[in-house]
Every structure is written in C-alpha cells, then in structure tokens.
Amino acid sequence: MAKKKSGLGRGLGALLENNETDITASRESVTNASVGSVSAILVKDIEANPFQPRTEFEKEALVDLSNSIKEHGLIQPITVRKIGYGKYQLISGERRFRASQIVGLTEVPAYIRIANDQAMLEMAIVENIQRQDLNPIEVAISFQRLLNECELTQEELGEKVSKNRSTVTNYLRLLKLPDVIQLALSSKTITMGHARALLGVENESTLVKFYRKIVDEKLSVRKTEELVQNLNKPKEPKSKSSRYSLSYEEQKIKEEISKHYNSKIGITKTNKGNGKITIPFVDQDHLRKILDLLN
To answer: Which of 5, 102, 213, 289 is the most exposed place for a label (fewest CB within 10 A)?
Structure first.
C-alpha cells in the first residue's frame, strides 16, 4: 500500500512534532528523545524568518503578550532551525519571539527542527493562517508564493492549507485589484465580502469609483453586490411607447397624412419636441404618386 501523503492542512503540529526532524536533543540520542524536549537559546543567536508572510503585527496585541510573558514567562516554546554554529532561524512563534524581545529576555525556550526553505515557507504560512489570521492580501500573497516558489498546483495548495480550490482562486484574484483597494483590504477599511463583490467589475476606473462610494457611503456588502449587479445588468431597449409618445392632435395629423399619401406614415419625436416623418412605399409606382403629391 502506498504511503499516505501528509499535508500541511492537518496543522503545524503534523510538521513539527516529528522525531525525524527533531534535533533538540543530541543527534546520538535523537531516536530515543522525546519530541517535547526543549532547549534554551540566546535571543541574540536567533534571526527572523525570511519567509514570514505576515508584514504587520498589531502593537496592542504584542504589548498584551509581552506583559503576560513578563509575569508568567514564555510558556509555549518557539520553533527554530539551526543555520550554522550557534546560529538559528525562526520557523514559528514570531509574535512570542518579538514579545520576548520587548520584555528583554536574553534567552527563550525553543524546539530545534530540520527544515529546508520550502518547508520554512509552508510552516510559516500554515502557522499564521491557523493560529493568527493574516489579512486577505497577506493570505493571497502567501498563496502566490507557494505556487511560484514551491511549484504547487492550486489543488495541491488547497490540500496543504485545508481550503478548496475555489477559495484559493478567490484569494489569488484579489491581487488583480487596484493597489488602492488592496491597501484598503489590508487595513480593514473594506472587508473580504466587499472585495469579492468588486471582483465582478472589469473596468479599473469603475472599480476605484465603486470603492470610493463604498467608503464614503459606508455601503454594506449586500449593497455593494447590488451596485455591481446593476452595472452588469443588460440595459433594456426603450419601448415603442416612449419613442412614439404622440399627443391626440398629433395622432389625428398622422392619420390624415396617411390617408392623403395612401401610406401608413410614421412620426417620431423626442422629448424636446422635434422629430421626423417617414413615408413608406410599396413599389416604384407608389413612390411616383407620393412624389407627385409632395410636388
């Protein structure tokens, strides 16, 4: 039986809690070592994760976390990989690591793992998505990086992050929105629901116009959807009644002229009161008679 393919969608623990990648203990005893073993590492020996998809961390949340660490210590270890003699690179736990720096800790508890660049990127994305939600644009950029740098298909990507393909596609489509809308989505000026509705607008200038309307009028997602639907709704042709809105007197004139030329003439007029008269004919002789009457 083929070995079942593991996926990131099962959680970060599926990647990290593995004896084969755990080098917290010495290499000689790694087979018998507990995965839960932890080492104390100097903060100055740890560098940031270059694959971290999160670009912003909420300051208030970091302060709250640092206050908790100051009072109780860092209870949950961070996870790192060794990149050289006495040097480590953060895999997961960047919020905890930053909060520890704010408090002024000189060393932190850590799991040490073996991970290549692809695994680093995947782990960082999965941790953020599952534990501390990224904003939609950060998620979209992270998905795009997984597709490009890890050469995944959208189906494989969906499996790794426990999302169906349509959800992955919707996130990726966000990157096609104008920069001003992407920035608004990142700063939570508009929601993912607003952005999904705006994806139905093809013209960029109209997109920006609608975005301004959403912000200025504080439109709900439902109102935004209606706005886009009305834009894409095919325009109904004007009815004949609106083109031939003749008065009773004009209708009488039309009948009299029709009798005079022995032809069912047409009269159209605009809202301004101007218009035109058309006189149809059935053959050459009929045309000559009409011309004689006109002369």
So the answer is: 5
